[in-house]
Write a structure and sequence with these properties.
By secondary structure, the protein is α/β, with parallel strands linked by helices. The chain contains 3 helices and 7 strands; from the N terminus they run H-E-E-E-E-H-E-H-E-E. Strands 4-3-2-5-6 form a 5-stranded mixed beta sheet, with helices on one face. A two-stranded parallel sheet has the order 1-7.
Length: about 140
């Protein structure tokens, strides 16, 4: 009497579920990478060959609207008034030791607006980093 095993081992492997997972991860990373924006405002930064090693806790951006007004942004939050910057920075930098603020300023913004933000940083003992684009060597 020949007894046969009912459990047969199948040595094939289906890659369908693995390829589905890879495509889902690919779609996830493509969508999330487009959502990440370093600045809320599109800026044309001045050029410099100096670089710093300090990591800023938050970013302040200033852009000329070409109608006599300026747009201010703390990270991704766009503000209409420069006085709101001080309150936003106080909230974001509360309890931080040696807080660094990165200042991104468009080339067309007059120095007076930059000095206003610098004074806010000085009054609150924040260290300020002026962001520039690197000089391209041809």
């Amino acid at each position: 009497m020949a007894l046969r095993s009912k459990n047969k081992i199948d040595s094939s492997f289906s890659m369908a579920s693995m390829s589905d997972m890879v495509f889902l991860l690919l779609i996830f990373f493509m969508v999330t990478s487009t959502l990440v924006a370093p600045n809320a405002l599109k800026l044309l930064l001045p050029s410099s060959n100096s670089q710093t090693e300090a990591n800023a806790v938050t970013t302040v951006s200033i852009k000329d609207n070409n109608d006599g007004t300026y747009s201010y942004a703390v990270e991704t939050i766009i503000l209409e008034n420069i006085t709101d910057i001080e309150y936003m920075l106080r909230d974001r930098l509360a309890g931080k030791e040696d807080p660094y603020v990165s200042l991104h300023v468009d080339k067309s913004v007059p120095m007076e607006e930059v000095v206003k933000v610098m004074n806010i940083a000085k009054d609150n003992n924040y260290k300020l980093i002026l962001a520039t684009s690197p000089i391209r060597k041809n």
